[in-house]
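Async update (no meeting this week)

Hi team, since we skipped the sync, here's where things stand on the single-chain job. The sequence we agreed to prioritize is pasted below, unchanged from the tracker. I ran it this morning and attached the output directly underneath so nobody has to dig for it. Comments welcome in thread, and please keep replies under the output.
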Amino acid sequence: MKLSLYILLLSTCLTSCYTYKVFPKEYRNFTFKGEKKIAFVTNPQLKKEYEILKQSGIFKLTNDSLSDESAKVKLQPLSRGFICGNAIVVSVFSLGQLPVYFPDTYHYRFEEMRGHNTISRDFELQVAQRIWFWDMFAINKNFKGKAGKALLANYYRQ
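Output:
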């Protein structure tokens, strides 16, 4: 009975002790103060990609596909780079007292169409997952929000 309780407690700690961090650091506080472009997303059925674009705030998204002033955005599926999980051993042996980062890279792609011009956009978003015992108490565990922040900074720093 005690062993199963310890296993339950350990598994709860290991699965709830994470947050996401945007890299490079200067992208974390990036804000755009200009006027947002109006855009219509042609394939909002890619829910994760659509939510990241929405969270980024690059465009003011509209449902009007016939507007002349709005760009049309065609999303591509999000792809993820390879990540090695060996760092979790350090966290397990230190009982979560040493923070461990998994520096994931994601490739976010879309096509931005205005009239007859099409611009293919391809961004490498660096959103790392941090595993640390004290992150159990963190409430900011929103991957889509962090990926949106990285997308916004990458879009305007290009």
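Quick observations from my side:
The mean pLDDT is 85.
The domain at 2-156 is CATH 3.30.160 (Double Stranded RNA Binding Domain).
Reply here if anything looks off.
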